[in-house]
């Protein structure tokens, strides 16, 4: 290289560095470091200059098929950013499976569900690795609003594409049907069909019909577009990356997204609804009214104390159930004249992370709860409270137009309201009923809220309006209720939850964030619940790793807020 060329390059380098104020900042950095003389000089210099580097931007998303807590396929999304000119993995998220887990599914149903789930996850992986990664490249991960806008537009286009495909398929099927009918009409006609003779003594008149009061038909379930997991996964992983970029926990980042004008000085934790019993409806026992029994610790306890109290009740309840089981087994053996045999331990854990049992009556179930509490010196209604998930949409017998609350015992929607009023009056320690009625029974929802609204929370979970519809029309299909259980599934975005909790806050309804049946090990739901100001958190029981991980995260947040003096 000639001397003149070297001088030109030196001059251009000097201008480049001076233009970026490198000499001035280097002098400032060295002057700031000299009195302290840190052990890691270059580490200190790196920290000093890092504040002048460009903000991270998304460089790619990576989607892959993984498995959730019950072994079902689901989606993991990883996010990579360009940080200081290098590609760096920032975070990942695993979506919870949206499907419900039936108690006794038919083999053909299992096979169809597995195929649908695999196809959906495969499509979601393709979306993430293809279009979404390209569309979100170079976006600031702290710009959640813009990210969710891009994701929403992409999903809307996919919905329209699906409608066009379905329309073409319907037209093709109609054409084939018309062609088949034309062939039949051109075929030579055979002898007229003989009319069956009516037997003597039988009147061919009208059948006597038993008049049954009509009930509103079940509303169709919201169609799940294959691949929709990609939208929820991409939105959540961007929120997590935004928290990392802002150097704050996800719960605080979420709170700032909901209230951007003010940084919260204090934050409160949602009360956990801890599932202790999952009641089988297809067992030999009679009670069908109750699907889940949950304990809610009192507000005056810390979360750590509340969880310990629930665990103590769970241990005592397990002991009572085991003792009762052994006793009934020994009585049966003595009647048959056999020696008493050792029974296997009572350790059947539901996918919800709790014991699975069956009962013959509501009173029998509640007596078990009261006895378990009393044995360890606690009183229901003072030291702890109950919430019951009725899942009433699973109880409706559409032929009879009534709910089957016990095997062979049916009640109309109006009779259900009267039954719940009597139940709460007799057992005031029940402070929440989830899905006491179907969402279609709006008149009865109004009646039960008028009768019990001041005594307990009446919460809609499956009876809640579809999230997408509630966002577009806040009054459509909204059952009168105290609050709604929201789940982060499918195409739900972080911005949707922020908007929806704002709507519920404005309607003076409470927000409950809940885990779906197929939960993953991702703990983000807890941070979202804290950041959004949810009143309750419905995570299931304390006996499955993917659910216990969330309780542990809640405990860690409590400890962190308390240490910072920010726990309300």
TrEMBL record:
From the UniProt record, give the pathway where this protein acts. Carbohydrate degradation; glycolysis; pyruvate from D-glyceraldehyde 3-phosphate: step 4/5
UniProt cross-references to SMART domains, sorted A to Z: Enolase_C (SM01192), Enolase_N (SM01193)
Going by the UniProt record, its keywords in alphabetical order are: Glycolysis, Lyase
Query: Per the record, where are the segments of Basic residues compositional bias?
Result: 197-206
Does the keyword field hold Lyase?
A: yes
EC assignment: the record states 4.2.1.11
Tell me which GO cellular component terms the UniProt record holds.
Answer: phosphopyruvate hydratase complex
GO: which molecular function terms?
Answer: magnesium ion binding; phosphopyruvate hydratase activity
Q: Which reaction does it catalyse?
A: (2R)-2-phosphoglycerate = phosphoenolpyruvate + H2O
- UniProt cross-references to InterPro entries, sorted A to Z: DD_ENO4 (IPR047500), Enolase (IPR000941), Enolase-like_C_sf (IPR036849), Enolase-like_N (IPR029017), Enolase_C (IPR020810), Enolase_N (IPR020811)
Domain (Enolase C-terminal TIM barrel) spans 266-568
GO process annotations (BP): glycolytic process
- Please list the residue ranges that the record marks as compositionally biased, kind Basic and acidic residues: 165-175
Q: Which domain of life is it from?
A: Eukaryota
Could you tell me which residues belong to the region Disordered?
165-210, 322-342
Residue ranges of every copy of the Enolase N-terminal domain listed in the record: 58-254
- Uppermost EC category: lyase
The family this protein is said to belong to: Belongs to the enolase family.
From the Swiss-Prot or TrEMBL record, give the protein name: Enolase 4
Give the species: Bombycilla garrulus
Organism ancestry: Eukaryota, Metazoa, Chordata, Craniata, Vertebrata
What's the gene? Eno4
């Amino acid at each position: 290289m000639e001397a003149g060329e070297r001088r030109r390059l030196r001059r251009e380098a000097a201008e480049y560095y001076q233009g970026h104020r490198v000499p001035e900042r280097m002098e400032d950095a060295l002057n700031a470091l000299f009195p302290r003389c840190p052990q890691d000089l270059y580490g200190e210099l790196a920290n000093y200059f890092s504040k002048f580097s460009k903000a991270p931007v998304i460089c790619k998303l990576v989607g892959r098929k993984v498995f959730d807590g019950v072994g079902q396929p689901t989606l993991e999304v990883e996010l990579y950013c360009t940080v200081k000119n290098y590609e760096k993995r920032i975070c990942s998220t695993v979506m919870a499976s949206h499907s419900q887990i039936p108690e006794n599914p038919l083999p053909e149903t299992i096979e169809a569900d597995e195929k649908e789930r695999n196809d959906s996850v495969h499509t979601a992986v393709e979306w993430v690795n293809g279009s979404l990664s390209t569309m979100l490249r170079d976006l600031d991960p702290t710009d959640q609003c813009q990210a969710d806008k891009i994701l929403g537009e992409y999903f809307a286009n996919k919905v329209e594409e699906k409608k066009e495909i379905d329309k073409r398929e319907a037209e093709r099927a109609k054409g084939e049907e018309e062609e088949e009918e034309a062939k039949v009409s051109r075929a030579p006609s055979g002898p007229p069909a003989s009319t069956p003779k009516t037997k003597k003594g039988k009147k061919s008149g009208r059948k006597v019909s038993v008049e049954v009061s009509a009930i509103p038909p079940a509303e169709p379930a919201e169609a799940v577009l294959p691949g929709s997991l990609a939208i929820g996964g991409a939105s959540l992983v961007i929120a997590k990356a935004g928290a990392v970029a802002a150097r704050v926990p996800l719960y605080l980042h979420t709170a700032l997204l909901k209230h951007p004008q003010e940084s919260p000085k204090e934050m409160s934790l949602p009360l956990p609804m801890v599932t202790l019993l999952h009641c089988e409806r297809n067992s030999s026992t009679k009670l069908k009214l109750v699907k889940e029994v949950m304990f809610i610790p009192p507000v005056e306890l810390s979360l750590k104390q509340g969880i310990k109290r629930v665990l103590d009740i769970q241990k005592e309840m397990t002991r009572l159930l085991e003792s009762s089981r052994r006793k009934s087994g020994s009585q049966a053996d003595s009647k048959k004249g056999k020696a008493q045999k050792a029974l296997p331990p009572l350790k059947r854990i539901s996918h919800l992370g709790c014991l699975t049992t069956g009962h013959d009556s509501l009173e029998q179930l509640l007596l078990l709860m009261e006895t378990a509490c009393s044995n360890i010196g606690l009183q229901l209604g003072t030291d702890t409270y109950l919430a019951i998930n009725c899942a009433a949409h699973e109880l409706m017998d559409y032929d009879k137009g009534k709910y089957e609350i016990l095997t062979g015992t049916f009640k109309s929607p109006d009779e259900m309201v009267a039954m719940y009023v009597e139940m709460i009056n007799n057992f005031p320690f029940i402070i929440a009923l989830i899905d006491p009625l179907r969402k279609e029974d709006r008149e009865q929802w109004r009646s039960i809220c008028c009768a019990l609204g001041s005594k307990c929370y009446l919460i809609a979970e499956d009876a809640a309006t579809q999230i997408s519809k509630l966002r577009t029309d806040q009054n459509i299909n909204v059952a009168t209720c105290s609050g709604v259980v929201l789940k982060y599934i499918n195409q739900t975005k972080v911005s949707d939850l922020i908007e929806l909790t704002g709507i519920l806050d404005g309607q003076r309804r409470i927000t409950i964030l809940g885990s779906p049946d197929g939960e993953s090990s991702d703990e983000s739901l807890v941070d979202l619940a804290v950041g959004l100001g949810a009143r309750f958190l419905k995570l299931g029981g304390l006996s499955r790793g993917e659910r216990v991980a969330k309780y542990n995260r809640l405990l860690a947040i409590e400890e962190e807020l308390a240490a910072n003096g920010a726990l309300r």
